[in-house]
């Protein structure tokens, strides 16, 4: 479940870091302030930190530089091998947002540019799993593309169509980019108090604390 987009990253593993650095014009606005976005997530993480979908390991690098104890789960083989080669000592396994084996108590769940791979129903299920594993005060810190409303999402589709960005438009329509009210409600139902902060035209910081 939630793994239907994993194979897309077989082809993207080699060129992903070029995309995040703004070399892919269609995705330049999505990855604007990429480094600062990762910094914002890493700055809030504490203790045993669980990272989902590290890709090439750019957020992982910042978490490790902070001295955090990181456990990572990456379902794409090419991406997982890349990150394992980059950080030999990193504890990284095949796993995903919904299916991961946890041996030690977590303090923080982090992820960037990945939670939209789950449907809203799956996101709600994931939030309940994280709530069951965290103590009071434990955190979820995700950064991802999310829209203020359904109307804002449709307006963005129109804008991207006018820009002629066919790949980005297909991506925005294909994957499960949700809205802030939906995300807030599913996190609230799982027992989290959540704040949202805009980080660029697409990406918001989603910071939830277990009540
Ligand atoms: C756009 S990349 C983001 C990589 C990295 N987190 C970053 O910020 O640059 C999305 C990553 O999510 C992973 N992914 C896809 N489906 C997933 C799932 N269901 N659970 C966890 N990770 C998933 C992909 O394999 C890929 O590595």
TrEMBL record:
Assigned keywords, A-Z: Methyltransferase, S-adenosyl-L-methionine, Transferase
Residue numbers binding S-adenosyl-L-methionine: 53, 74, 96
Pfam family, one: Methyltransf_23
GO MF term set: S-adenosylmethionine-dependent methyltransferase activity
Keyword Phosphoprotein: no
Matching InterPro entries: SAM-dependent_MTases_sf, Uncharacterised_MeTfrase_YrrT
GO BP annotations, alphabetical order: methylation
UniProt enzyme class: transferase
Domain of life: Bacteria
Enzyme nomenclature, EC number: 2.1.1.-
Gene3D superfamilies according to UniProt: Vaccinia Virus protein VP39
Database matches in PANTHER family: TRANS-ACONITATE 2-METHYLTRANSFERASE (PTHR43861:SF1), TRANS-ACONITATE 2-METHYLTRANSFERASE-RELATED (PTHR43861)
Function: Could be a S-adenosyl-L-methionine-dependent methyltransferase.
Family to which this protein belongs: Belongs to the methyltransferase superfamily. YrrT family.
Name of the protein: Uncharacterized methyltransferase E2626_02300
């Amino acid at each position: 479940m939630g793994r239907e987009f994993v194979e897309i990253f077989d082809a993207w593993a080699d060129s992903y870091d070029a995309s995040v650095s703004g070399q892919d014009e269609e995705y330049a606005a999505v990855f604007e302030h990429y480094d600062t976005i990762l910094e914002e997530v890493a700055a809030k993480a504490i203790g045993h930190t669980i990272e989902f979908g590290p890709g090439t390991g750019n957020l992982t690098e910042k978490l490790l530089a902070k001295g955090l104890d990181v456990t990572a789960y990456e379902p794409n083989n090419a991406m997982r091998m890349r990150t394992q080669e980059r950080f030999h000592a990193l504890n990284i396994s095949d796993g995903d947002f919904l299916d991961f084996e946890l041996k030690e108590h977590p303090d923080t769940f982090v992820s960037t540019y990945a939670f939209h791979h789950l449907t809203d129903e799956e996101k709600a299920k994931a939030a309940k799993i994280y709530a069951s594993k965290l103590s009071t005060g434990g955190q979820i810190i995700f950064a991802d593309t999310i829209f203020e409303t359904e109307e804002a999402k449709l307006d963005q589709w129109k804008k991207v169509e006018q820009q002629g960005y066919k790949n980005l438009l297909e991506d925005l329509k294909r994957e499960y980019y949700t809205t802030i009210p939906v995300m807030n409600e599913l996190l609230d139902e799982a027992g989290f108090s959540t704040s949202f902060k805009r980080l660029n035209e697409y990406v918001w910081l989603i910071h939830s604390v277990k009540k």
